[in-house]
Amino acid sequence: MIQEQEELFEHLGSSSDATKQRAQLQSRHLQSDMEAFKAANPNAEFEDFVRWQSPRDWIVEDSDEDKESLDEDAYNKKHGHLSMRMMEPGNLWIEIWKKSKAIPINKQEPIFQYKDIAEKILIQLYNIPPQFIYIHLLPDMFIAGYNTLASHPAIKKIPFLENVMKKLGNAITSIQWKDLNMDYSFQELLDLAIMFRDAEVLLEKTISLLSKLPEQYQLVENLLLYSDSVVRTDEEQNCIYRLFGFDDEEEIISPSSKEFIFRSVISKYDEMDQPLMQRMYILQRENEFRVVESKANDTIITHEFKIQNVLDYGNYK
């Protein structure tokens, strides 16, 4: 019904005659409001109704007089006046006000026939194609999904995830939802659905990581961004210990071997020589200790290997 009325008003055009005709079509609703207003406010005047129904048509002059002694409503009433539109001769509002009686809303005749309108609505609902309903439900579905994701407390703790949600929100608002119809290109909606999928996967990973690494938000963010991270703080280190079932560092099983690699690029004799790569590899096991050096001299690379097997080192670490 509302859509039919809007289409009728648009069909009338924007001429002065169309404006008057549009006002007359709306006069029944306006008269109903005026009659109910008069019934609720027996001593009300036309100016009072305008202040309530159309505040923009009540012009308040700025004055220092009575500002402190009167409240806002009384001040506006005393120092205000009708707009030029409302004071024009033959104004439709004034004419309707004059002929309106004080009738409470529950005693007024219905503006439209409820049964007829209800029957039209039921017929329309019965004949609506499922895809039409789906299209009109899409905005609510996307917004409900966004609110579910964005309301998770982890979002505000991880800047990367917060930016993902902002981009998702911008993508939702950029779509012209009112223009959706059966001929609409659904590529934008498919792209939006992919963004939703990626955001949901990221949130699921975040929840999983935080369950294993409680309150380690920086570490979790690095894992989301790069898939690995350097453990920088004692808190992060202790959290990793607990993740693998260790209460402290002393409970960690000793390694079967240790390897060390040293690399440097230096000039062998003085600064005038060409800097060349120098490398040292060290392997340490329970009964074995190896050192391998690789040195480069000028443009000819020679390898000098020094291997020393150390036996019976006992508890050497």
TrEMBL record:
<protein>
    <recommendedName>
        <fullName>Rab3 GTPase-activating protein catalytic subunit</fullName>
    </recommendedName>
</protein>
<feature type="compositionally biased region" description="Polar residues">
    <location>
        <begin position="13"/>
        <end position="29"/>
    </location>
</feature>
<dbReference type="GO" id="GO:0005096">
    <property type="term" value="F:GTPase activator activity"/>
</dbReference>
<keyword id="KW-0963">Cytoplasm</keyword>
<keyword id="KW-0343">GTPase activation</keyword>
<dbReference type="InterPro" id="IPR045700">
    <property type="entry name" value="Rab3GAP1"/>
</dbReference>
<dbReference type="GO" id="GO:0005737">
    <property type="term" value="C:cytoplasm"/>
</dbReference>
<feature type="domain" description="Rab3GAP catalytic subunit conserved">
    <location>
        <begin position="1"/>
        <end position="124"/>
    </location>
</feature>
<feature type="region of interest" description="Disordered">
    <location>
        <begin position="1"/>
        <end position="30"/>
    </location>
</feature>
<comment type="similarity">
    <text>Belongs to the Rab3-GAP catalytic subunit family.</text>
</comment>
<dbReference type="InterPro" id="IPR026147">
    <property type="entry name" value="Rab3GAP1_conserved"/>
</dbReference>
<dbReference type="Pfam" id="PF13890">
    <property type="entry name" value="Rab3-GTPase_cat"/>
</dbReference>
